[in-house]
Amino acid sequence: DTEVTQTPKHLVMGMTNKKSLKCEQHMGHRAMYWYKQKAKKPPELMFVYSYEKLSINESVPSRFSPECPNSSLLNLHLHALQPEDSALYLCASSPGSAEAFFGQGTRLTVV
Amino acid sequence: GQQLNQSPQSMFIQEGEDVSMNCTSSSIFNTWLWYKQDPGEGPVLLIALYKAGELTSNGRLTAQFGITRKDSFLNISASIPSDVGIYFCAGRWSSGAGSYQLTFGKGTKLSVIP
Questions:
Q1: Biggest distance spanned by C-alpha atoms of chain B
Q2: Of A51, A101, A104, which is closest to B45 when you measure between CB atoms?
Q3: Rounded to a whole number, what is the distance in Å from the CA of B108 to chain A's nearest CA?
Q4: pLDDT averaged over every residue in chain A
Q5: Contact flag A42-B107 (C-beta cutoff 8 Å)
Q6: Contacts of residue A6 in chain B, CB cutoff 8 Å?
Q7: pLDDT tens digit string along A28-65?
């Protein structure tokens, strides 16, 4: 089983809303990631969690707040987003020094 | 920072033709990964390469990890319409403290003409 599950698949939110993206994996992977992908561009790393601790924050604005409640779950809390934050948000997990597996993504539209 | 140059940017080929794309870098990577992404979906891992010089196949796909650890190529033989999509190479490197990151190429958009 190499499945990373992301919910919701689509999300439309206003600039004053608060919403959360969820990611789940049951492969026992110790590293989990959030990426942002704009159209026709490669994924851009946002955050890395290693053993449930935030290890990398790629200078992401504070309106994006990650959370790792346990080794299987990763959340991304969204607040006061801007229209330019509209993108495909991808979660990935990795067993460590090997390959990373991606979820299907959440298509976020900020209106 | 780490950068990957992926080429070509796009390809239009006839069904049945072979395809080749590659990635080069000035940096050394300890793992090379090749992903395919369909519109609106997440990248799907095609092939992972772990050792310099390694040649790995997955069905009609063949990829190699360059001997200098700074490049990789992906070949697709006898292309079919479902091969359409964007192919990304990614180099994996250690960012310290037990964390690893991926650096992605800009992608190769493949179009197959039936």
A1: 49
A2: A101
A3: 10
A4: 94
A5: yes
A6: 42
A7: 999 999 999 999 999 999 999 999 999 889 999 999 99
State which amino acid sits at residue A23.
C
Contact B105, B90 (CB under 8 A): yes
Helix H or strand E segment including A5: strand A4-7
Closest chain B CA to residue A42: B106
> How many angstroms separate the first and last alpha carbons of chain A?
36
d(CA B104, CA B3): 8
Residues from chain A contacting residue B40 (CB–CB below 8 Å) = 88, 105, 107
- Token pair 């959440």 is found at A106
Q: Which of A62, A101, A107 is nearest to A81 (CA)?
A: A62
Distance from CA of A63 to the nearest CA of B (A): 23
Q: Which residues contact B32 (CB under 8 A, 6 or more apart)?
A: B23, B48, B49, B63, B65, B72, B89, B90, B91, B92
| Total residues belonging to chain B | 114
